[in-house]
Amino acid sequence: SSSAGRGDSISEQRAQLKEEKDERGTVLRVGPAEVSVLAPRLRAYLRSGDPTWPDIVDAADLLRRDLDISRPLWIEACQALGRETAAITVAVVSTKDPDHFTRTAGHYFHGMIQRAKKGELNLDRTLWGLRQAGRAKQAQGGRDAL
C-alpha cells in the first residue's frame, strides 16, 4: 500500500508540474529561457538563444553525459518526473561546484530522483535560491563596475 501512495504522489506531482504544456510555457514556474540563464553550463548545448522545452530537454540529455549521469538514470528521471522536470534537475546539478558532491554529480542526481519519488524534492526552493544567487551576482557586478 505504501507503493500505491508513492505512485499517487508521483502522478499528482506530474499533473502539478505540467501546468502549461506548450513549448515555451512554465514548468515549476520557470520557463525554458530562464533555465538557460540559471544554468550557464546548459547554454553550451542549446541550439538557439531562445530555447523551447524540447531544446532544454535535448541540451540536458547532452549535459548529463558530462556530469556522469547514466542514460538509464536519465530515463528513470524522465519517467518519474517528466522530461522537462528531469531536464531542470540536470540543470540544477550542473550549477553545483564539483566540491559540493560527496561522490559524483551522477550520485547526487540519483539522490534527487529518489527524493522526488518520495515527494521530498523541492525544486521550487532550489530554483528560488539560484535566482537569488544570480541577482546577488548581478548586484555585485554592478558595484564593481562603479
Structural overview:
The chain is an all-alpha fold and 146 residues long. 68% of the residues lie in helices and 0% in strands. The protein contains 8 helices and no strands. It has helices at 2-17, 32-38, 40-43, 53-66, 71-81, 83-94, 105-117, 123-145. Helix 4 (53-66) packs across helix 6, helix 5 runs parallel beside helix 7 and helix 6 (83-94) packs across helix 7 (105-117).
Instruction: State the secondary-structure class.
Output: mainly alpha
End-to-end Cα distance, whole Å, is: 61 Å
Q: Which regions have little confidence, pLDDT < 50, spanning 5+ residues?
A: 1-7, 16-21
Query: Helical percent range?
Result: 55-70%
Number of helices: 8
Order of helices and strands: HHHHHHHH
Q: Outline, from the CA principal axes?
A: globular
Amount of beta strand: under 5%
What is the gyration radius calculated from CA atoms?
16 Å
Main sheet attributes: strand count, strand direction, barrel closure: none
Number of strands: 0
Give the mean pLDDT.
83
Task: Note the main attributes of this structure.
8 helices; mainly alpha; disordered N terminus; 146 residues
Brief write-up:
The chain is mainly alpha-helical and about 150 residues long. The chain has helices at about 1-15, 30-40, 40-45, 55-65, 70-80, 85-95, 105-115, 125-145.
Topology:
Elements: H1 2-17, H2 32-38, H3 40-43, H4 53-66, H5 71-81, H6 83-94, H7 105-117, H8 123-145
